[in-house]
# Entry
Amino acid sequence: MVSTRKTPDRSSADEQGQLADLRADAVARAIAKRDAGLDLTPREIAMAYGRRVQKVLEWINTGELDADDVSEDLSKRPRWRIRASVLAAFFERRRQARRTARRPVPRRQAEKNESLIDPRTGKVRGNLRDPGSFTKKRG
# Structure
C-alpha cells in the first residue's frame, strides 16, 4: 500500500526556527538598549514588552507615551524615538493606575449590600453603629 502521508517540509521548519532566533535576538537588543538608557523605537518596545507595534503607536498618538519625532522632514512619516526613562515612567504610571482601579464588587457581596438599602428611601437600613440591627426583622 502506498502512503499518502506528506513528509513535513524541513525547510519551512528551519525558516521558522531562524525567524524565532532573529526575533529573540531583536528582543535581547531592545532590552539591552532599554537597560543602557538609549532611545527605543516603537517596534523595539513592542518586541521587548510583547505588545503589538500598533498598540505602542496608539499610546504615542493619544499622548499616554511621550515620544520624539526624529524624522528629517516633518511633512513625512514620523520616526518615533522613546527615551528609556520616559518608558519606565509610563509603565510605572500604568502599574499605579491598575492598582487604584476600582474592582467590581462580587455578585454575592453586591446582593448582600443591596438588602441593607431601603428601596423606597434609598437610605441605609439599621444603625451603622449597631451591626445587630441589620439582622433584626422589620415589621
Remarks:
- The helical segments are 10-36, 42-49, 53-62, 84-100, 107-114.
- Residues 14 and 20 are 10 Å apart (CA to CA).
